Amino acid sequence: MAENVEELKVLQPVVMKQLQTIFEKNRTGHAYIFDGEKGTGKKEIAMFFIKLLLCLNPSKNVPCETCRNCKRIETGNHPNIKQLEPDGQFIKIDQIRELISGMTKTSMEAGRKIYVLHHADRMNTSSANTLLKFLEEPEGNVTAILLTESYQSILPTIQSRCQHIKFASIPRDILLKQLQEQGITFSMASTVSMLTNNLDTAISLAHDEQFAHARKTVLKLVETVRKNVHEALFVVYEDWLLSFKEKEEIERALDLLLFAYRDIVAVKANPQSSCTYPDMLQSWKEIALHTTYDRLSDQLQAILHARQNLQRNMNRSLLMEQLMLNLQEGYTFV
Questions:
Q1: Is residue 50 over pLDDT 80?
Q2: Could you tell me the pTM of the whole model?
Q3: CA–CA gap between residue 113 and residue 141 (Å, rounded)
Q4: Which CATH architecture has domain 208-328?
Q5: pLDDT confidence of 198, banded at 50, 70, 90?
Q6: Residue 64 contacts by C-beta under 8 Å, 6 or more apart in sequence?
Q7: What is the DSSP string of 186-218?
Q8: CATH topology of domain 2-168
Q9: CA distances from 22 to 19, 32, 49, 53, 201 (A)
Q10: What φ, ψ does residue 272 adopt, rounded to 5°?
């Protein structure tokens, strides 16, 4: 776990410090809500915290991993720990009743009892109200850990009785690694990780054919803008306007276009920069070589201006024609 603890500290430095301080100062509360997107380490950190609270030989606010309690927690055999998953869509009232009954049985060992509710936002009103009574008056030394990806969906009365532990979004390099572990190419992972920090959303974007087409269309446009305005306008009418019909689609395409020019700026400053489109690196170096920072700054401004015009419901064809002319200027000397 030593290595694992270090990984968790990289993933969630603030949360780990928070929980280790709670343990060190002996201020363990009776209920916590671990709130964060999928992939932010909620389950792993809940397990770390449980081990820390029950470990027989903790050292420097880290569980020993070798004592009887740590080993039983690792294998899921500790009688004082109960975990609850939704039964189908919801966590039902009978599940909560059974949990409470299990928590109050004398067959449990002496010492702290801990229960973990996975997807706590999926309690229906009756199960939430039943849990609320137990949260207000737990019998003995009991700690609850509620895990959620949707904090606002938890009853305010339950929120107010729990300490809110907010998990930060996944750092981009870790998200990149997770996406590649799912079999997604480094190039696609680099692009989707710029658009979202949520692992599930990133995975579905990476597998979405429409998104792959959008990415391709945007890159084709960047390449043609270099050549001449007529060719760029041809791509706008033949590909861009036919592919992106909805406002949201154009907005996303303009974002993807903005990232391409940001890449070029980054590569001009440092050829080893990490890019949104690593598969385009050679192209970006070539463009960077034949342009200036002032020119790139104007092009970024032109894309941002087009985005504003989109919000003002400007005619899409006119918007794109104007953008092509603005992006084109200054390339004549290449």
A1: yes
A2: 0.71
A3: 6
A4: Up-down Bundle (1.20)
A5: confident
A6: 55, 56, 57, 58, 70
A7: HHHHHHHHHH---HHHHHHHHT-HHHHHHHHHH
A8: Rossmann fold (3.40.50)
A9: 5, 12, 10, 10, 33
A10: -95, 10
